Every structure is written in C-alpha cells, then in structure tokens.
Amino acid sequence: MLKYCLKRLGFVLLTLLLSSMVIFFATQILPGDVAQLILGRFARPEAVAALREELGLNEPVVVQYLKWLFNFVQGDWGLSLSTNNSPVAPLVWGRLKNSAILGALAFIIYVPGGILLGLWAALRRNKPVDHVISVGSLSLIGLPEFVTGVILIAVFSLELNWLPPSSSISPSDGLYRMLPKLILPAVTAALVSLAYITRMTRASTVEALYSDYVRTAYLKGLSPRQVLFRHVLRNALMPTVTVAAISIGWLMGGLVVTESLFSYPGLGRLLLFAIQRRDLPLIQATTLLMTAIFCLSNMLADVLYAYLNPRIRYQ
Amino acid sequence: MTDRANMTDIGEGTGGGTGARAGGDGAAGLGGKPGERETIIRIDKLSIGYETESGYVKSVRGVSLGVRRRESFGLVGESGSGKSTLALGSIRYLAANGRVTGGSINFMGRDITTLGRAQMSKLWGRHIGMVYQNPSLALNPSIKIGRQIAESAQIHQGLDKKASFRKAVETMGRVSMPDPEYVAGLYPHQLSGGMLQRCVITMALLNTPSLLVMDEPTTALDVTTQAVVLDLVASLKKDYDSAVFYITHDLAVVARICDSIGVMYAGELMESGPAAEIFRAPRHPYTLSLLNSIPKFEEEGRKKSLRGIDGMIPSLRELPRGCVFSPRCFMAVDECRLRAIEMEETAPGHLTACHRWRLAEEMEREIRKGKSYPAPEGTPVSLSVDKLSKHYAPVRGALRRGAGKSLIKALNSVTLSVPKGCTLGVVGESGCGKTTLLRSITGLLEPTSGEVALDSQGLPASVGGRPRSLLRRIQMVFQNPDASLNPNQTVAKCIERPLKIFSDLSRAGRREKILEILESVNLPSAYYNRLPGELSGGELQRVGIARAFAAEPDVILLDEPLSALDVSVQATLVNLLLELQVKNQPSYLFISHDLAAVHHISDLIAVMYLGRVVEFGKSEAVFKPPFHPYTEALLSAVPNPDPDAEQVSVRLEGSVPSPSSVVAGCAFHSRCPRVRGPECSDVSPPARRLPGSDAVIFCHIPLEELSAVQSSPYHRTG
C-alpha cells in the first residue's frame, strides 16, 4: 500500500513538472512585453531595454524557465508586478488560507448532504421523494455558480435580508464574524458537487440494494437495518468517497467564480485579478498551486479507492 | 446472550431436529402417512403474481408439492418456467412487486403464507438456508469470507464475534473445505467459483437449517467442479438431516441427486413424483420431450436427430386455453386445448397433468422417431492445424508484479485435423485454450508458431493477410446470439452481408437466396424484416447459423453455440446442424464444455487441458477405455440423466492451474488422480496410439495399464 502511494505521488510530481512547463510557456506567449507592461505605454525605450535586461527577459526561454523553476521549488515565487513588487508567496498563501476555509465549509455541506440525499432517494426508489431529489440534482448540475449564486443573493440577501451579499472579509475578522459572510458563497460553491454526490450515492446504493449479496444478507436473516449498515453502505459509498475526493479539485474551479461573485479574498479571485493585470509571476504561482491541489485530490481519490476496495488492495 | 439464542426458534420446539413431529401432514395427496418422515415444507395450490408496467403476470399457478426431512426435491424447468419464482416465493422472498395470490405454504407445521418480513427474518438463515446460482455475486465483495459466514451464527445463535468465527471455520471444515482457517481470512475475489460455492453452502448450513433451498447451484461451475459440489450436496441431506429443495434446468443433475422431482412449464407443474419413477416411466409429453432432448452417451444414438420441442414458451400474459403445453405438444388433441387440466395420480405418488397420460406407449413410439446422419467415409482432410502454439508474455502493469513469471502458453503445439463433412469436437474446462484455438484458426490471433491449413494449403497467419476467397471458406457461429447480432439490423440484412461480400449476386438474387437460406434453417419467411430483439434465443441462433452458411464455407467454427439455450431448443439446433452438414458437407469444429453434446454430434474428439491436446481420435475410441486420465475424470464428472446407471466417480481436486505455471512434463500432472511419479512432472508425455484406430493419448502410463484399471463411466446396472 505504501509502495502504491509513493508511486502515485511520483506520478503527481511528474504531472506537476509537465504542467509547470505548460503554464510557463503559455504565459510566455501571452501578447505584450512584460517590461513594457510594467513601465507603461509611454516609457522610454532605453528604460524598457534596461528593465528587460534586469528581468532576464533577453535570455533564451528555456534558461528563463529553468531559473524560474529552480527559484520556485525553493520558495522564491518572484515579485508581483501589479502590487508594487511585493513578494508573491505570502500573498498567495494568505489567499489560499481563505479559500481553504471557504472550501472546507462547502465540503462539510455537500459531502454529508449529498450522501444523505442520495441514500434517501435510493431507499425510496421510484417514490415522489426520489423523483424530486433526482430531478433537483440533475438541474443543479446544469446550473453554473454564477446563476445559483445570483439567485441565492437575490433571495437570501436582497429579499429576505438574512445574509450579507458581499463576503469581503478583513484579516482581523474572527470565525464568528466571518461565518455569516461565508454561508452564501460556501453554499454556492457546494451545490454542483452536492448534486454530483447525491446522484452518485443514489446510483451506487440502488445497485447495491438490488445486488445478489444483499439478497443473501436478507436470507441470512438480517433485518433491513442490519443489511443497510453492514452490507449496503460500505459497497455503495465506495464510489462516493472517490467522487468526494476528486470534488476537492473541482471545487477549485467553482471557487474562481464564486469568490469573484461574492468579492471573497480567496485564491480564485486572486487568479482572476492576476490575469486581468497580466501579472505573470502571480498567474504562474496561482495556477501551479491550483494544479497541485487538483492532482493531490485525484491521488487521494485513487488511494482511498484502492484502500477501500479489497480487489485492488490485494493485487 | 447465548441463553437468548434459543428464543429465536420458532413455534416453541418445532425448531429442533426431532423427526417425529409430522407438522399437519396427511391433508393433501402429497403428505406423508403417520410414521413417515416429517414434511418440512408443503406448498398447496400456490399462485404467485407480479405487478409489472405492462400488467399483471401470473408467474406461478396452482402448484402443490412437499419436501420431507432428508429428502431432496428437484424442481426442473426451462427458462421462464417460474421455478425460481416458486422456490423464492415458497420461502416468502419475493421482489417488491411480487405477491402470493393464492394457496398456502406450510413450513414445519406452521402456516407462513401471510407471515410478515420481520417474522420471516427469524426463519431465514436459521431454519431455511439458501444457496444461489452465482456464488461470486452472492457474497459481499468487501467483507472477508469468514465474517460473512459467521454473521449468520451471530444473529441466530447470539454468538459473539470470536465464537461465531470459530463456528464458521468449523463448519467450513465439515464441507471439506481445504484449510478453512486460511480461506476464512480471504475476500471472495481471491477464490475460485467452486470454492466460493462451498463457502455459500457453509453459510446456508451454519445453523443446521431444516430446509436447504438451492437455486441452480452448479450452473456457473465447470463440469469437474460441479461434480465435486454435487457430491457434497448429496452428502448434506444425510449429514445435516435437512430437506433439500433443488432448482435446476439440468435433468441429469436431478437424476443424480434427487429423490423426487417436479417438472415445471410456464408456471405450472406438469408432472411430479419419485425421481426413479419419472425417469423410468414419464407420463407427461413435456417430460418425455425434455428427456429425449438431451443427448445420451450411447453409441447407437450418436448423430441421430434429437426430439426437441418446437415453438416457444407462451407469454405469461396470453396463456393458451386448456393445457398450457398444448400448443407445443406432439400428443395434443382438441380436448387438450379446451378443457382445463388437473393433476392426476398415474401411479402411487406420481402425479401428471395430462389428459392423455394413458397413451404412454404411443408417446414413446412417437418420440423415438428420428433420422440418422452418418459421417461420410474416406473424405480428404479439410481443416488441419499443425503444432499450433500461442504464447503470451506475462502482463506487467503498474500494479502487478509480473517479473520472474514464465510465458503463458495458451496454446501449446496443438495438432488436429478434420476430414471434409465431418465434425471435430473440442472439449475441456474453461481456460483450456479452446477459444484461443478458434481465434488462431480464424487468424484473429496470430499464433506464435505452427500452421493452419485448409485442404493441405497453408493459410496466412493473420486474418488481414488472407484474401476474400479464403475468408469465405471459414465461417463462425458464436456462443451468444443476443450479443453477436447487430440489434439494429434486420434478419435479412444480417444474412445478406456475407452474400454481398462473397458472392456476385444481384439484389434480387440475394433476396431469393436469403429466403432460401431462411427456409433451410426452418425460419418462416415472415422473419425477413424482423429485428433481433423480436426473436427468441433459439431463433437468433438459427439466424447466426444461417449467416455462417450464407457464405457457403468449407469449415464452420462453432463456439459453444448451444450453451446459452434451453435443452429443448438445443435439441432442435443439434438437429439443424446435423441436417445442414449432410446437405452442404462443411466440416465443423465444435467447441463445447458439454460432453454429451460433443459426443452426440462429433466424429472426432480432441480433449484439451491447459493449452495442450491430451487425447485425440474418433469419438467411439475417445469415449471408451483406455482414456487419458483427464478424459476419464471429465466423463465421470458428467451427471448421467439415467438414475439407474451406476457412475464411477473420479474427482479432481482444486482448479485448473494457471497456464504459466506448467513448465515441463504433462500439463495434467498436478491434478491427475493416476499420477505416477517424477516422469509425469518432468518429462513431456509420449503419444500412445490406440491399436486399431488412429486415436492418440498423451500419457506416461502404458495403454494396457490404463485399460486394466478403467471402465466406462457409463454402464447400466439395472
């Protein structure tokens, strides 16, 4: 098992190396000269040339990449171009913390919620409850965050006035003061994954409920409750656990939209900000960090699945 | 906790093993007389229905039967006969839309017809043990075997985890499970089918139930494994003092292990009574037809047409008036189609649902009619394979440790030949290389070495290298007609395809030809524009055969063409294949795990084990001593549909080893009951020719020695 984990980790590192290349070269081919961008449209050509020399932009691209990578793995992520040359790393880590809080809250909402809804639907298969949950989750999967978010703001902030429409928090806010501001964005970010997990749980539970081994369990004399807890859940939740782990990666994508919508100072909003300002070091650091989170969540899914499924564990 | 366990027993005392209490016997004709063994379960005029989207379906109608302690009752029927519904319904386990609509079920002296689920839970697993068709699906994949078995003792006997686990291991030992302690710690996917079925049986037996319900427990197993499981089942009713309710489609299995049988058709019981009596003197035309649909191991019956039953089982929504079997019955007269049938006692304990049972002799005469299709003599060799081998490198994936393993020899120097117009049957258990052989002949797999030849002309190894004119000459019929025909293409389109590719007929010419071919496979011309979804399994296989014959091939490869079908349908297809062979003179290569079917239609037989041919020769020579020890074991594993026949039992332990584990010596040495010594495992066996025929046996034991110790597994004593 340890060997398997290490192997997967190796793959993750390889993926990250490849994506670092893609990210670096993609930012290179963005239109516009970085030095020109920093100094503004009316800068003197000599100043631009001097800055180019200073930033190392005259060196071959491969050398630039290797230098950047070398510094990056050492924790030197460069200086942000758009925020008065402040270092990128502390900025990104601070925002990651905020995103993690929001993401964790969303996760706590959609994983148990999705499992419960999915189980409820599966146990009441073809009854009205099941139809409502199935149709509801399907339509939620189809709705992007900027639609559900706007609707939630319209209903809970503007109409009912229960929760604030904006979630800009300040570093001094304690969790108690933050929480009301977090609820709407967390719910918005959670809805799509909630729907996925609900559908996944429902499907795998239905499959387990109609399996031959459940019939065996009933005919062994187990009560419906015992059958559910001892035989159905473990097999039914195996795919769900995997989806939950992968969903951490998806969540990152959802946060870009959600954070912007609610003006929440997280990683997603930072990325959008960096792109708007052509702040290359910031873009590179943020995207690579998001890629890493995505890869790790996928790895977690694989390892969990292998751990839970004896057929894979014992190979 | 342990004291409370006894309280879960039902009916205060009926739960024990005392055979004296005859729970409410004697009411109906099936009950026992006083002093006889107690009737464990009695079903009286039971009807079961299902509520479906397209209306109400009466799956089981008015069935009465009873099973006594230490008795095994075999319920036989083809697919759709309602046997599984009856078996599960009789222990009150039905799908949510199923319901008992009439009659009563009496279990151990107690009416359980209207018992609720919670009350049934106390009987299930405690007094009623259940064994299922597919053991690999019946066990929970993520719980260790021992725990799953132990669970039953935990609930019903109130044992704690440790004690119940010990009980499970002990019971596993009682069903002769090798190394039960170790097996108990494994997950289901780590065991073979035969071992899993033993685990399921252990689970059913754990609380020494009074009734054991077995739903096709050996259908998913290989023939040698089936034999071992059947031996076990036969010993159970004695050792465990239970009644066995055995459901199967296989009459031969019933003949081997059941005391009484019931024959079901379309949800009704056609005939029931003592097994010996029914096999000796069947009274119902359906039973007679079924018995005569199975090929027997008799030299004089070989290559003769079988009875079969035309038509198909009626839809349960539009049942025929009168007798349900009348539309397909060879004895039916107007009366049968008008008057409802009651079961009549035709001999003591023998009940038959037929007006005309007294005409048994006439039935026998009618059913014995049949045509013979002898093989042509002295025809030249058509298809031959010479030293054909197919080796695979071991798989080395990210997760597998393949290093250090030797080559997987799926096919190892196989040499065979078939004369024109004759049939070569290839038999062997799953994993013996039958399918690899077929695929190598077609060129879909490129052999590692060796050659395939047609009329003594070597063929290009790969299908891509063969010209069309060659492709036409080898055609194939597949195992599963459902899956091998395109569901969106009409019957005509399917047959037209080879005509388009291989012939230069015009559109009108093709149409005429298709109609001609349809007629030759006994399909009405109305099927021309039908889609596969509208056809039954047997009809689909006729289309598959028609498609193969449309190319007018010299060789037809038949890959288990019958195994997905009911016996009555198998028989009609055997007849069709025999007839078409005589008419068009193609050679057949018939691959099957059903030895009786292979024996029936083959002129030559090759027995394969682990990618090698162990015996090859004329059918009459192969199925007569001396045998290769593997052939002997296979033959003795096949249950005989004649309960009077005494069978020699040679049993194989374990399962077929992986093809990569055999390095030198005889492939069979690890399981051979007649293994002699180091020569078997180290030296590859010599080809021994049988005197007076060209059959060969690959074995270290001299033929005279084999002849001296072997006798035909099929000789009648009575």
Task: Give the helix/strand layout.
The complex is a heterodimer of chains A (315) and B (718).
Chain A: H1 2-28, H2 34-39, H3 45-55, H4 61-73, H5 88-123, H6 128-142, H7 145-159, H8 175-209, H9 212-219, H10 224-261, H11 267-276, H12 280-308, H13 310-313
Chain B: H1 2-5, E1 39-52, E2 55-68, E3 72-76, H2 83-90, E4 98-107, E5 110-111, H3 117-123, E6 128-131, H4 135-138, H5 145-157, H6 161-174, H7 180-184, H8 193-205, E7 211-215, H9 223-240, E8 243-248, H10 251-257, E9 260-265, E10 268-274, H11 275-280, H12 285-291, H13 334-338, E11 344-347, E12 350-352, H14 360-368, E13 381-392, E14 408-419, E15 423-427, H15 434-442, E16 449-454, E17 457-458, H16 468-473, E18 474-477, H17 481-484, H18 491-502, H19 507-520, H20 537-550, E19 555-559, H21 567-584, E20 587-591, H22 595-601, E21 604-609, E22 612-618, H23 619-622, H24 629-637, E23 645-646, H25 678-682, E24 687-689, E25 696-698, H26 703-709, E26 715-716
Parallel strand pairs in B: 3-8, 3-9, 6-7, 7-8, 15-20, 15-21, 18-19, 19-20
Antiparallel strand pairs in B: 1-2, 1-4, 4-5, 9-10, 10-12, 11-12, 13-14, 13-16, 16-17, 21-22, 22-25, 23-26, 24-25
